[in-house]
Write a structure and sequence with these properties.
Strand content: 5-15%
Largest sheet: 7 strands, parallel
Number of domains: 3
Radius of gyration: 29 Å
Number of strands: 13
Distance between the termini: 73 Å
CATH superfamily of the largest domain: Tetratricopeptide repeat domain
Helix content: 40-55%
CATH topology of the largest domain: Serine Threonine Protein Phosphatase 5, Tetratricopeptide repeat
Mean pLDDT: 90
Structural class: alpha/beta
Shape: globular
Low-confidence stretches: none
Length: about 650
């Protein structure tokens, strides 16, 4: 009887009647367990057919049964992982891939998919291990090599990443993906010419590759070139919120951009990516005086300037007033991430989750106040605010308005936005005495600059911030201060001849370029060679300004009409140096020259400025946190009154 069932099943299978074949073979296997492997093979075949027809759930049922019936079948487990990913069940997908790998440790495709899952979770070390296993199992597996190369670059191993991605290009000379990854890796390593060559080659192969255009902006030697690249990327992918945010950020590097001003483009961003939605009903108790659950959401809770500011803030919060919850969307957590996790009440790793999933988690956690940190910078999940997951939502440390209709407030201070500010926000401006606090670097050397000799100016800003008008002002400063020079440093960017060229054209051999991505202590020590820091414009320094002041170096700045051009003015006001804030380029030149010639004042600042900064609101985390808590409380009371 069993023999007849098997023969009938095979006949049905050859006739294309797979459902009938499986039913017959199931009956046979119930009598003779040795037939389950064959049943698993048929289920695998039907699962593939269903998957090809779009029946994802049905395919999952077949693959799941095939895995159970065939203990050696690795491909059904692998395909089950694909189905689980399509259904949004990442944990179940990982489990399926691990079953596939257990059955066949050389199944490179399963290792590659595991790499991608671990990467989205921010588990970099685990992802790298999976990528290396995929590479070892199948050295010519192009997609796995690209993924491993991109991940290796993100982990900061630039040289290794470039080598891996060159191998990818050797495998497929006509493929563009590896060239994009290599371009980004070269840019991270300061090899701007090589980065541009790789990215332009990728664009030649695929002019519609939006990520090639997006990454071209990271290697662009000028703000105008970065904007052009991002406009192209945005045109190719108008629904890509991160690319659109990158365009907004790039617009802050230019003083005027017509209808492409950052705040106008941010409103377009909000209308497209976070349109107004009906306000949901909240289960939060509308008690105006109770302890509040405050959430901070960012992809920059890692070794990043934002992290150093929020670390001080987190530690300054009064836990009897607020419960602090950090939602970290960083795909590459590090030691700073682990330190931050110790300073909050609850740490949520949300890397790899969709904005809707993060919003659901915020609602389930009963968050009262959501602060989205630096929303338009990098890959921060600003779209979460559009879902209105919290009764009160505010933007913190962003470069302009979020543009999100559901965002209630934007934190600022009286210097950044005076009463007559021309900058327009969808949010209500909420004022605190000091915009942000900084964590004093514990590895900073002591300030020490020997008196005598011609003055040395310095700028450690991103070269993309250096406009032709600013370079001309620097030329005038150097001309007016005989024998003076200027030291330029930003990571490893100034090692590029392409970056150096316009600066040399404007300043000649009076410009000295410091290259190499030094550790923070060595980077800060370079300020000891500088007498006066020259701020960038129209995008001022932020961390750069604080570090200069911490090292006893005064900063001359030009304050404009927008937030990004008033950051240094805000910092200088907090340490009693508002006389170094100027209103036009002529005054900027005159102030820098006069300060460089005032040796007595420079010596006094070198000796005492760090103490002044340490005692200022810039480093008073407790007072700053109390000011924010008061602002939060006011916003919360207003919501309670409306509820």
């Amino acid at each position: 009887m069993t023999y007849n069932l098997v023969q009938a099943a095979l006949a049905r299978r050859h006739a294309g009647r797979l459902d009938e074949a499986i039913a017959l073979l199931e009956a046979a296997a119930a009598v003779d367990g040795s037939l389950y492997n064959g049943l698993g093979s048929m289920l695998h075949e039907r699962g593939n057919s269903r998957l090809g027809c779009g029946d994802v759930a049905g395919a999952g049922d077949d693959f799941r049964r095939a895995v159970a019936f065939s203990p050696a079948d690795s491909w059904s487990a692998f395909n089950l992982g694909i189905v689980e990913e399509r259904l949004g069940r990442r944990d179940e997908a990982e489990a399926a891939y691990r079953v596939a790998i257990e059955r066949d440790p050389l199944l490179a495709h399963a290792w590659n998919n595991l790499l991608l899952i671990e990467k989205t979770r921010g588990h970099v070390d685990e992802a790298l291990r999976a990528g290396r296993r995929a590479q070892a199992a199948e050295p010519s597996f192009y997609e796995a090599l690209v993924n491993l190369g991109d991940l290796t670059a993100a982990a900061g191993r630039v040289g290794e990443a470039v080598r891996l991605l060159r191998r990818c290009s050797a495998l497929r000379p006509d493929a563009w993906e590896a060239l994009v990854g290599r371009g980004l890796a070269h840019a991270m390593g300061g090899e701007i010419e090589a980065a541009l060559a790789a990215l332009h080659q990728a664009i030649a192969l695929n002019p519609s590759a939006r990520m090639a255009w997006n990454d071209l902006s990271t290697a662009a030697p000028s703000s105008s070139e970065a904007i052009i690249a991002l406009q192209r990327a945005h045109a190719l992918a108008p629904d890509d919120a991160v690319v659109h945010s990158n365009l907004i950020f790039s617009l802050t590097y230019v003083a005027e951009a017509g209808d492409m001003r950052p705040e106008i483009e941010a409103r377009r961003w909000g209308a497209r990516h976070a349109p107004p939605r009906p306000s949901p009903d909240f289960a939060n108790s509308p008690d105006p005086e109770r302890r509040l659950r405050v959430a901070y959401l960012s992809a920059d809770f890692r070794s990043h300037p934002v992290a150093y500011s929020v670390q001080a803030l987190f530690s300054g919060h009064s836990r009897d007033q607020v419960e602090v919850i950090a939602y970290s969307a960083t795909p590459t957590p590090d030691g700073v991430s682990r330190t931050l996790a110790k300073t909050v009440d609850v740490w949520r790793d949300v890397a790899g989750r969709t904005e809707a999933e993060i919003a659901d988690l915020l609602r389930r956690d009963g968050v009262d106040i959501l602060a989205v940190v630096a929303g338009h910078a990098g890959a921060n999940p600003l779209k979460v605010a559009g879902f209105r997951p919290a009764p009160v939502q505010l933007s913190m440390y962003d470069v302009t308005t979020s543009g999100v209709a559901a965002m209630d407030a934007w934190l600022t201070d009286p210097v950044l936005h005076p009463a007559a500010t021309a900058e327009r926000f969808v949010e209500t401006l909420v004022y605190v005495p000091c915009f942000c606090v900084h964590l004093p670097p514990d590895d900073a050397p002591a300030p020490q600059r020997q008196a005598g000799g011609p003055p040395v100016f310095g700028s450690f800003s991103n070269p993309i911030k250096l406009s032709p008008a600013l370079l001309d002002a620097w030329r005038r400063i150097l001309d007016a201060a005989p024998g003076s020079t200027i030291v330029l440093k930003y990571k490893n960017r100034f090692g590029s001849p392409l970056i150096q060229a316009p600066i040399r054209a404007a300043l000649g051999d009076r410009a000295r370029f410091a290259s190499g991505d030094r550790g923070r202590s060595d980077h800060l020590a370079l300020w000891n060679e500088v007498d006066v820091a020259l701020d960038s414009y129209p995008f001022n320094g932020s961390t750069t300004t604080f570090e200069a002041l911490w090292m006893g170096v005064p900063v001359v700045t030009l304050a404009g009409a927008h937030f990004v051009s008033r950051i240094s003015a805000s910092f200088l006001a907090q340490v009693g140096l508002s006389d170094l804030v100027t209103r036009d380029l002529d005054a900027y030149v005159d102030r820098a020259v006069a300060l460089a010639g005032d040796r007595a004042r420079l010596a006094a600042l070198r000796a005492g400025l760090r103490t002044r900064v340490a005692a200022s609101p810039l480093c008073d985390a407790k007072t700053h946190a109390q000011a924010l808590e008061a602002a939060y409380r006011g916003l919360w009371r207003a919501w309670c009154a409306r509820s």
